[in-house]
Amino acid sequence: xxxxxxxxxxxxxxxxxxxxxxxxxxxxxxxxxxxxxxxxxxxxxxxxxxxxxxxxxxxxxxxxxxxxxxxxxxxxxxxxxxxxxxxxxxxxxxxxxxxxxxxxxxxxxxxxxxxxxxxxxxxxxxxxxxxxxxxxxxxxxxxxxxxxxxxxxxxxxxxxxxxxxxxxxxxxxxxxxxxxxxxxxxxxxxxxxxxxxxxxxxxxxxxxxxxxxxxxxxxxxxxxxxxxxxxxxxxxxxxxxxxxxxxxxxxxxxxxxxxxxxxxxxxxxxxxxxxxxxxxxxxxxxxxxxxxxxxxxxxxxxxxxxxxxxxxxxxxxxxxxxxxxxxxxxxxxxxxxxxxxxxxxxxxxxxxxxxxxxxxxxxxxxxxxxxxxxxxxxxxxxxxxxxxxxxxxxxxxxxxxxxxxxxxxxxxxxxxxxxxxxx
Length: 423
Ligand SMILES: *Cc1c(COP(=O)(O)O)cnc(C)c1O
Description:
alpha/beta; Aspartate Aminotransferase, domain 1; Aspartate Aminotransferase, domain 2; four-stranded antiparallel sheet; 14 helices; 15 strands; binds pyridoxal-5'-phosphate; PyrdxlP-dep_Trfase_small; Kynureninase; PyrdxlP-dep_Trfase; EC 3.7.1.3
């Protein structure tokens, strides 16, 4: 049973089978050398220590081999991206031919919509969640305009019921039932960045498929955070970044999933580049594009090796731990934070994030009644790195790979002091 004593946190840390992984990361230090309570892994994951060696290997091979590194580096650069495919595929529940690491998130979203948003005069709408991450809104709006439609008419936003903050799955399915015939593409976040709600992707996909809609998900806040089975769920495509829960470093290289059933679709339009061209004839430099089958066929450029090396280092930790063990700790650690927040004797704190552990990842979005930014600034001064969203929401993500129960305990203590004194 959970309790509010510091001993409970210490005991849970001792028993934690993943506890040694905290030492695999650099935790930013305060001026007195104590580690910050870092809860921003949903925004920028911390640096795995082993990234340095992985990147240095590539710098060294470049230094010593120059262009020969493409074939003779310790890990030759020509096929380097493929070193990451299996590890990435197992995190999102895809087959290896369905997954490729390339570009950055918004770029991949555009590339996927070029191929999979195929509006017709009868079916041209895109269904997305209300207040999606701005980049997704801009990408979707611009795609709609690119095809000559008016975003006002072509984008259907899923809006929570009056007085509610979360979307109900039943309402999403109902919208699909009613408007599915007009919807060309369902394009939603996997986990909403603001509320932390993990949408029921399997049910949504199933219903959308019944209505013959194409389905794509932005998994920026889902990948490395929640269980995913993109292949089994029959999702058409998905995109994600790697610098949040996947800890690949600022602006790290992103990921993309294309379902197997599209692997040889040469009827789909796509924006092409030489790295998507059939490998065996790529260097004949011929004028006609013959795509590789599978997700790799959407590659444009030869990929940046240094960011790939960084992500490869980070993914090796995920491979070692495995998503099931990670999610097990994640659910318990987040439930512990939820428990401590509820124990705070105040009516000022409420949680926006779903209480059902299968409908959230590790992030909790905390609403603080009558909060102002000074409350947030004070907890920052006391060593908490979290995220403030106007007008009154603090987002915190206890990340199972490097956050401890003690981190969570101390955060709850600090928040408690502040909500009781600050007004
Ligand atoms: C973080 C995030 C982005 C950021 O896009 P970049 O192309 O990586 O800058 C986009 N969409 C969502 C949903 C995000 O959470």
